[in-house]
Amino acid sequence: MTLTTNRASRPRAQTLANAAALALLLQIPALAFGDDDKNPIPKVGSCPVGYRTSGNYCIPLQSTDKEVIIKLESCPSGYRTSGNYCIKQK
After folding, report:
1. For 18-57, what is the HEC assignment?
2. pLDDT tens-digit series, residues 30-62
3. Do residues 40 and 32 touch, judged by C-beta distance below 8 A?
4. pTM of the model
5. pLDDT confidence of 70, banded at 50, 70, 90?
6. How far is the C-alpha of 50 from the C-alpha of 55, rounded, in Å?
7. Residue 26 pLDDT more than 70?
């Protein structure tokens, strides 16, 4: 009895391995930011008060539930200005 290997399965196995590696790499930015409750926001100019720069993002220094939006012209009612951002007042 002769044992044969299916050569067609080798490229498929490599493709699956590559897909798994890519999925892992896509998780690295999320891991770099740490806790899920520290949601990064896109950096526009300087980060708002209570945030630090990390690449092209601003990351809260501590867990926060404050709503932060990018300021276009002026902040909407109920928000205060912090650089190029608007932070919802409590």
Report:
1. HHHHHHHHHHHHHHHCCCCCCCCEECCCCCCCCEEEECCE
2. 444 444 457 899 999 999 988 999 999 999 998
3. no
4. 0.54
5. very high
6. 16
7. no
Q: How far apart are the first and last CA of the chain?
A: 77
CB-based contacts of 57-63 (< 8 A; 24+ apart in sequence): 57/33, 59/33, 59/34, 62/38, 63/35, 63/37, 63/38
| Residue carrying the six token digits 């092209």 | 56
Q: Which amino acid is at 61?
A: L
Query: Which residues, other chains included, contact 42 with Cβ-Cβ below 8 Å and sequence gap of 6+?
Result: 56, 57, 58, 70
Enclosing H/E stretch for 13: helix 9-32
